[in-house]
UniProtKB/TrEMBL annotation:
InterPro entries: Aminotransferase_I/II_large, DapL/ALD1, PyrdxlP-dep_Trfase, PyrdxlP-dep_Trfase_major, PyrdxlP-dep_Trfase_small
Record keywords: Aminotransferase, Pyridoxal phosphate, Transferase
Cofactor dependency: pyridoxal 5'-phosphate
Every Aminotransferase class I/classII large domain range: 147-370
Domain of life: Eukaryota
Family: Belongs to the class-I pyridoxal-phosphate-dependent aminotransferase family. LL-diaminopimelate aminotransferase subfamily.
GO MF annotation list: pyridoxal phosphate binding; transaminase activity
Gene Ontology biological process terms in this record: systemic acquired resistance, salicylic acid mediated signaling pathway
Keyword Transferase set for record: yes
Biological classification of the source: Eukaryota, Viridiplantae, Streptophyta, Embryophyta, Tracheophyta
SUPFAM superfamilies from the UniProt entry: PLP-dependent transferases (SSF53383)
Entry annotated with the keyword Transferase: yes
One Pfam family cited in the UniProt record for this chain: Aminotran_1_2
Stated name of the protein: Aminotransferase class I/classII large domain-containing protein
Length: 375
């Protein structure tokens, strides 16, 4: 055992004094970028509070839900939890391929990319699609986009709040077919759609041959703490050699993952019930009203806003300004947290993202402060 004098903060020894094992560090950990967006926001918020200890900070930043989980859904999880204490109600591992209510669904896993810290601000191997307001946040000409193995696409989009049109998704599916790509389509905010925008990539003919869809109850049902999502991998989707993608997906999931908590699944089933759907819509309506109030306020003070209709996010443009500069000014002068757009990629510079996930009264107070700042 090392002498206590060799330890530094919290009893952790310095690098030079630590006993070393023979196990090599995973080299992928070294590829992770320092200064990840949301920890950086939290750091700046804490620094602001140190300077201004009496500040009443309102967060319109991280997209975490604030409305409680509907009672019918929480009750379903509570009842299932209590049933686990009985012989009749106890359940251990579920079926290997999931309960019948969750056929062909699971949780998606991911990999890290190699970050290259240079002027173009790209991860190695990633091609950014230029999605500007002028083109309704969709590439003007997909033929100019380099062919890639995988296309990640989120609609309604985080951070822009834009829901892709049917015509846009038809073009995306055709692009994937032409280049032999697989689309990974994130539909986590689909329940916020109130017009005829597609809620699923599978509304587009031929998409099952080129697309995987992922989603969750995190934002629609307030499951950011419960954690329950799903992945749809169509049987029609195959590799270049004709082998089924679904077979590999099932193999990976069954090997690396024992399934979502059965308690969370009980909550998920309740979400899909008629009563659950009605309760979820009531919660979504609260966030959509928050978004409307925020958009009206921001527009009234002359700011250019996007999104906020089919999504809980508002994308605000500050032409010619740096996103972090706007973030700092808003925090220092109003005690409000937003998210700098540059943190979402090169196309986000000059924008901030404003989240409608907050209590009604706090959103209205934030609007009052923003009006005072910009008028």
């Amino acid at each position: 055992m090392m002498a206590s004098s060799s330890f530094q903060l919290n009893g952790i020894p310095s690098v030079a004094l630590r006993r070393r094992t023979k196990v090599s560090r995973n080299p992928n950990m070294e590829k992770l970028r320092n200064g990840y967006l949301f920890p950086e926001i939290a750091k700046r918020q804490n620094e602001h509070l140190e300077k201004n200890p009496d500040a009443k900070v309102i967060s319109l930043g991280v997209g975490d839900t604030t409305e409680p989980i509907p009672n019918s859904i929480a009750s379903a999880m509570a009842e299932y939890s209590l049933a686990l204490s009985t012989v009749e109600g106890y359940r251990g591992y579920g079926a290997e391929q999931g309960n019948k209510a969750y056929v062909d669904s699971s949780i998606i896993t991911g990999q890290t990319g190699y970050y290259i810290d240079n002027t173009v601000n790209k991860y190695g191997g990633i091609e950014y699609m230029k999605c500007s307001p002028e083109n309704l946040f969709f590439p003007k000409d997909l033929s100019t986009v380099a062919a890639t193995d995988v296309i990640f696409f989120c609609s309604p989009n985080n951070p822009t709040g834009h829901a892709a049109s049917r015509e846009q998704l038809e073009k995306l599916v055709e692009h994937a077919k032409r280049n032999g790509s697989i689309i990974v389509y994130d539909s986590s905010y689909a329940t916020f759609i109130s017009d005829d925008s597609p809620r699923s990539i599978y509304e587009i003919p031929g998409s099952k041959e080129v697309a995987i869809e992922i989603s969750s109850f995190s934002k629609s049902a307030g499951f950011t703490g419960v954690r329950l999502g799903w992945t749809v991998v169509p049987e029609e989707l195959s590799y270049s050699n004709g082998f089924s993608v679904l077979e590999d997906f099932d193999r990976i999931m069954c090997t690396c993952f024992n399934g979502a908590s059965s308690i969370a699944q009980a909550g998920g089933l309740s979400c899909l019930s008629k009563e659950g759907q009605k309760a979820i819509q009531q919660v979504i309506d609260v966030y959509k009203e928050n978004a409307r109030v925020l958009m009206d306020t921001l527009s009234s003070i002359g700011l250019r806003t996007y999104g906020g209709i089919n999504a809980p996010y508002i994308w605000v443009h500050f032409p010619g300004e740096k996103s972090w500069d706007v973030f700092n000014e808003i925090l220092e002068k109003t005690d409000i947290i937003v998210v700098p757009g540059c943190g979402f990629g090169p196309g986000g510079e000059g924008f901030i993202r404003v989240s409608a996930f907050n209590r009604k009264e706090r959103v209205r107070e934030a609007c009052r402060r923003l009006k005072n700042l910009f008028t």
